[in-house]
Amino acid sequence: MNGPLLFFARFVFVAGALYGLWQILSPLYISFVISAANELFSGLELPVQLQRFGHSLVFAYQRTSGIMLRLEAHQYEAIYLNTIAAIALLGATPKQSLEWKFRWICKILPFLWATHVATFFMGGYIAIWDYAHSIPPSQSQGELIVEFSAYFPFEHKLWCTALLGQWNIWGRYAVVVGGWFFALRRELVGQTIGFLQQQIGGVHQLHNKSLIKKGVVPKYIRAQRPRQNTHVQ
């Protein structure tokens, strides 16, 4: 148990240290995510941009009338906190060099960054429809629905809601654990093969011992009686 406990202690230490630094790193990281998401919105000619106001993050929708509709994103930092778990998991991995840890951290971070950009992008579809459906039935609601249906089809909103629902339940951190197992795939396969070989060898030895105790000699090692030569005179 010393090995697993030591690994857990190192994981908690690295995660705690990173979480303490997150107040400094978070604004820098979210700026890269927001810029990429806004480039994606602009490339698809969607009338929405992500904007930051202090610690607040809003989806800013440009209506055809010129009115800017701003919808605040709540608890948005939870979207990319899995980066802390990924770095801590790889950094605390035992029996691996610093070069190995740094290489795999550099590999998994761009992948996580891409998932964070995709999450904010899909959030743009969800936010506008949630706001439209929260308005009491009126002429303004109907106009808003008609206007934004051309850019944000309701079918896409349903698809984004279902996908992000599963992602938030288990996918956000499952991808971190999956990436960690992928990084250790060679070590895990080697350990599994060694374990199976030990088990097979132990079963074989146990079988031979049981035969010896019962006084049973395998057929292939039984002594054969010498044949007597008979000569007819």
Strand residue percentage? 5-15%
Q: Write the element-wise H/E pattern from the N-terminal end onward.
A: HEEEHHHHH
Distance between the termini: 80 Å
Number of domains: 2
The chain-level mean pLDDT equals 84
**Count, helices:** 6
Number of strands: 3
Instruction: Summarize the biggest pleated sheet.
Output: 3 strands, antiparallel
Instruction: List low-confidence stretches.
Output: none
- Please give the share of residues in helix: 55-70%
Q: Record the strand order, biggest sheet.
A: 1-2-3
What overall geometry do the principal axes of the alpha carbons give? elongated
Class from secondary-structure proportions: mainly alpha
- Rg, nearest Å: 31 Å
Summarize the model shown.
This protein has helices at residues 2-43, 82-91, 98-134, 139-149, 154-183, 185-214, and strands at residues 48-53, 56-62, 68-73. It is mostly helical and 233 residues long. The chain folds into 2 domains: 2-183, no CATH class; 190-222, no CATH class.
